[in-house]
């Protein structure tokens, strides 16, 4: 039986009260590709709405904190930390986004990490859409997860610090 379905086939939130609390970390990544001029303007601080990466960083953190408000079967989790990182990839006209979300609890923070990356990318899009509607958000994925009964997950082919 699927864990988010009851015996009648209806959606349910999984009971996690019996689970042991463990330190849990999830790392997610994604990218946003844009025109060369857009990337240059972000780097030079010449986007009319302000410092794009600073705003995207705060938005990503907020996104992680609000995950259970948007994903119906997600538990409301006490997040102990969120680290956001942005890597400017000039040859490919991309900004690579990484979120590492941490908690000590009974369930993991994979959805929170994925949400943080998604919201950061959407924020970059929103702040730059006046000059570049061709931006593409892509490759949002979980790259690492630790803690809990299932232990460590590492996406094959991904380099992970720590």
UniProtKB/TrEMBL annotation:
Q: Which GO terms describe its biological process?
A: Mo-molybdopterin cofactor biosynthetic process
Give me the reactions it catalyses.
(8S)-3',8-cyclo-7,8-dihydroguanosine 5'-triphosphate = cyclic pyranopterin phosphate + diphosphate
Q: Name the Enzyme Commission number(s) assigned to this protein.
A: 4.6.1.17
The record's top EC class is lyase
Could you tell me one molecular function GO term of this UniProt entry? cyclic pyranopterin monophosphate synthase activity
Keywords, sorted A to Z: Lyase, Molybdenum cofactor biosynthesis
Entry keyword annotation includes Cell membrane: no
Please give the pathway this protein is involved in: Cofactor biosynthesis; molybdopterin biosynthesis
Q: Which domain of life is it from?
A: Bacteria
Q: Per its UniProt record, what InterPro entries does this chain match?
A: MoaC (IPR023045), MoaC_bact/euk (IPR047594), MoaC_sf (IPR036522), MoCo_biosynth_MoaA/MoaC (IPR050105), Mopterin_CF_biosynth-C_dom (IPR002820)
Active-site annotation:
126
- Residues noted as binding substrate in the record, renumbered to the chain: 73-75, 111-112
UniProt keyword Lyase present: yes
According to the entry, every stretch annotated as the Molybdopterin cofactor biosynthesis C (MoaC) domain falls at 13-148
What family does the Swiss-Prot or TrEMBL record give for this protein? Belongs to the MoaC family.
Give the multimer and partner information: Homohexamer; trimer of dimers.
Q: What does this protein do?
A: Catalyzes the conversion of (8S)-3',8-cyclo-7,8-dihydroguanosine 5'-triphosphate to cyclic pyranopterin monophosphate (cPMP).
HAMAP family recorded for this chain? Answer: MoaC_B
The molecule here is called: Cyclic pyranopterin monophosphate synthase
The organism named in the record is: Geosporobacter subterraneus DSM 17957
The organism's lineage is: Bacteria, Bacillati, Bacillota, Clostridia, Peptostreptococcales
């Amino acid at each position: 039986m699927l864990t988010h379905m009851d015996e009648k086939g209806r959606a349910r939130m999984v009971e996690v009260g019996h689970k042991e609390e463990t330190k849990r970390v999830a790392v997610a990544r994604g990218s946003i590709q844009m025109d060369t001029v857009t990337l240059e303007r972000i780097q030079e601080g010449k986007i009319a709405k302000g410092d794009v990466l600073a705003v995207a960083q705060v938005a990503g953190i907020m996104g992680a904190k609000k995950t259970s408000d948007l994903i119906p079967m997600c538990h409301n989790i006490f997040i102990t930390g969120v680290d956001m990182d942005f890597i400017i990839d000039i040859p490919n006209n991309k900004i690579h986004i990484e979120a590492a979300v941490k908690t000590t609890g009974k369930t993991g923070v994979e959805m929170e990490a994925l949400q943080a990356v998604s919201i950061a990318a959407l924020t970059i899009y929103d702040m730059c859409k006046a000059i570049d509607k061709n931006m593409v958000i892509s490759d949002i994925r979980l790259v690492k997860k630790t803690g809990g009964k299932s232990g460590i997950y590492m996406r094959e082919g991904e380099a992970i610090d720590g």
